[in-house]
Amino acid sequence: MNRVVRLFFWLSLFLLCYGGTLNRSLGQIFPHWDLIVHASVFLFLSLLWVLGYGRPVLCVLLLFSVGVMIEVYQGLVLPMRTADPHDIAANLIGILAGVMLASLPGIIRGMRAR
């Protein structure tokens, strides 16, 4: 099971990096749509990481770094895209929410054991 989760994580991360380096954005369906997408994608990735590898601190560091690198790349290299600190904040919110969500079953088991 862990192998499948890990493979799915790496495939999803590749798609995120590929999509983040395209010279076009998703556009705005409604206000702040892009922030919801950022948080959701990084929540999903952090869930996959913690379920596949554990090590939530490494997850936060890795995914936060990837998110920052993509934003910097967009700001420096892609003429139709901009780096946005709000996107980085949404990424971090998604990462932390995913780590907490993935850790929740272990926390509940620990509370029941007392």
Short description:
This is VanZ family protein. The chain is mostly helical and about 110 residues long.
Order of helices and strands: HHHH
Number of strands: 0
Task: Tell me the fraction of residues in β-strands, as a range.
Answer: under 5%
Largest sheet: none
Shape: elongated
Whole-number count of domains: 1
Uncertain residue ranges: none
**Oligomeric state of shown chains:** single chain
Give the helix tally: 4
Q: Averaged pLDDT, please?
A: 86
Distance between the termini: 29 Å
Structural class: mainly alpha
Classify the helix fraction into a percent range. Answer: over 70%
Radius of gyration: 15 Å
Protein name: VanZ family protein
Transmembrane segments: 35-51, 58-76, 88-108
Keywords: Membrane, Transmembrane, Transmembrane helix
How would the blueprint of this fold be written?
Elements: H1 2-20, H2 33-53, H3 56-77, H4 85-113
Helix pairs in contact: 1-2, 2-3, 2-4, 3-4
Transmembrane segments: 35-51, 58-76, 88-108
Keywords: Membrane, Transmembrane, Transmembrane helix
Organism: Microbulbifer aestuariivivens
